[in-house]
Design goal:
Length: about 325
């Protein structure tokens, strides 16, 4: 595997390998073949892809029907349209009925940048955390992504996988082993815990290196498994530090920041917490990725500023 890879490409390769080993997998797209980078799959297995056209509600309903017919159904389209337009179908056809559908939210967060709020998916985790009976994952690198997908295709039941729209560098070596619910501690530290999901994990990795050069030891914690989540393990990783900062390309309400706040509050842990993301009541800036993250303070530089302020003696 290369040092950097688009997660949709990882998804398609996982699909091809799954069918070759006998998984009765049927991808379903909503005129989103280019977004899903699905052409290698179609070439390998002509006739196996279902394209419902620009009709996201039909996309999810069709996937649920395929699953009820014994198939492993995988929807592959842009996260903002999957979660917003097909909200009721996800809630009822997939979650409530516990159908074996794998929902792939492509180009999640603000991957579409300048296309603005119509194309930004900054509420998908909060929406799906409000639904029962669906597992939720946000991989941060190609190695982790592949293992999550392989797990999801073997797991019987609804799964949502949040995939970033940009190529991401590898964070894990060949010894990495994904387990549902597991917290991934990438770096130990005692001054501040930096916690992120998906592509913003790369921001906190960079921020931790800068902070180390300035005398602050930051723990770097990735949470690829939003549900299930080993809350005891997460709490244990946080309690070694003097404060916590969560970083997500998502609204600060209902996503990773809320999950961490719940864990700390329910344990009665008296630790300062700063949630970095899209502010309460706001939308993501219509701009390219670097400008957008800088504006909202969720790039490495913004994390460094917040961590230094949090760690200053009062």
């Amino acid at each position: 595997m290369s040092n950097s890879e688009h997660l949709a490409t990882v998804m398609v390769n996982a699909f091809i390998d799954a069918v070759e080993r006998g998984v009765d997998l049927v991808p379903v797209v909503a005129d989103s073949t280019s977004t899903a980078k699905i052409s290698p799959f179609v070439k390998a297995f002509p006739g196996r892809l279902v394209n419902v056209g620009i009709a996201e509600q039909a996309l999810v309903g069709t996937a649920a029907g395929l699953a009820l017919g014994g198939k492993v159904a995988a929807t592959c389209n842009a996260a903002p349209f999957l979660i917003s337009r097909a909200n009721e179908q996800i809630k009822i056809d997939v979650c409530y009925n516990n159908t074996n559908v794998k929902l792939f939210g492509l180009n999640s967060g603000a991957s579409y940048g300048p296309l603005a709020s119509t194309h930004h998916s900054i509420d998908d985790i909060s929406v799906l955390r409000g639904f029962g009976n669906i597992e939720i994952y946000a991989p941060s690198c190609p190695v982790e992504c592949r293992q999550i997908i392989d797990y999801a295709l073997a797991h019987v039941g609804p799964v949502y996988i949040r995939l970033d729209g940009k190529a991401l560098p590898v964070l894990h070596d060949e010894h990495y082993h994904f387990e549902p619910g597991q917290i991934d501690v990438l770096r130990q530290g005692h001054d501040v815990a930096l916690v992120a999901m998906g592509s913003t994990v790369h921001e906190i990795v960079e921020a931790a290196t800068v902070l180390a050069s300035r005398g602050l030891a930051a723990a770097v914690i990735s949470v690829p498994s939003i549900r299930p989540c080993n809350r005891a393990q997460l709490l244990s990783a946080l309690q070694h530090c003097k404060g916590v900062i969560t970083v997500e390309e998502h609204n600060i309400n209902g996503g990773l920041g809320s999950l961490v706040a719940e864990v700390l509050a329910e344990a009665g842990a008296a630790m300062p917490l700063r949630r970095l993301g899209i502010a309460d009541g706001g939308y993501a800036l219509a701009a390219d990725r670097s400008a957008l993250r800088a504006y909202h303070g969720i790039d490495a530089a913004g994390v460094v500023r917040t961590a230094q302020a949090l760690c200053q003696p009062q």
